[in-house]
Each structure stands twice: as structure tokens, then as C-alpha cells.
Amino acid sequence: MITVQNKICASIDKVWGFWTIPEHIKKWNIAIDDWYTQDVKNDLKVNGKFQYKMAKRDGSLSFDFEGIYTNIESLSLIEYKLDDDRTGQVRFEKIADEVKIAETFEPTKQDSVKMQEEWCQTVIDNFKKYVERI
């Protein structure tokens, strides 16, 4: 399993909303500058589907990151299963005037664990910058 995390100086409501609302997801869900999140569908409920369409800015490549939610505890926990059967979870914990967010997930077999960890840590870091800037 891989875990990436960060602490965000914002309310739990704001952190939860910015993590789950499609128009916000499109603004922070990026790890490399020449990629972007083209479209987001997010049905935040148990058995609800999520789909993030990722694309290179030059249009040469794209892929869908998708799965279903297996457990939702509002303002606290999101568990999911990806289309390739890997699982993951995102925990939200209020600590004083910050929110600790931690995502744990099963890595793919075809990419290095280090690369996946760095990629996802960059996404969480971008999320922090976005939430604290808005």
C-alpha cells in the first residue's frame, strides 16, 4: 500500500467540498504540468461512480481514472474500488485549525511504487495549495 498525506489550513467543510466537487477537482488534480483533468463525474455515494478524464495538454494522450465508492462517511472517510479492482481510501481528520488528509491505495504492478507515490504526493500537495489559495 502507498500512503500520501498533507495538512491543510482550512475548515473540514471546505476541504471535503474541494476534494469532492467536480469543478474544484479539475483545478487541483494534476501531477505534471503538461497534463490536466479534462472532465470529472462524481456521484459521491456508496456504489456511486467517479470518473476523472486525464489528458495531455497537446491532445496526444488521455485516459480515464474511474471506479466506484464502497464507503462514505461524510467529512471523514471515502473508500473506493478502481475499475482494475485496486482499492483505496481517503481520510480527513480535523486537528486544531487544520485538516489532515491521507490517501492510501494499492499501487499498480506496471509502474514503480516510488513513481506512483511521488505522483500522488504531488497531487495532494497541489490540492493543499489550491484549497489554501481560494
TrEMBL record:
It holds the Pfam family AHSA1. Gene3D superfamilies: 3.30.530.20. Residues 10-132 form the Activator of Hsp90 ATPase homologue 1/2-like C-terminal domain. Belongs to the AHA1 family. This is Polyketide cyclase. It comes from Flavobacterium hibernum.
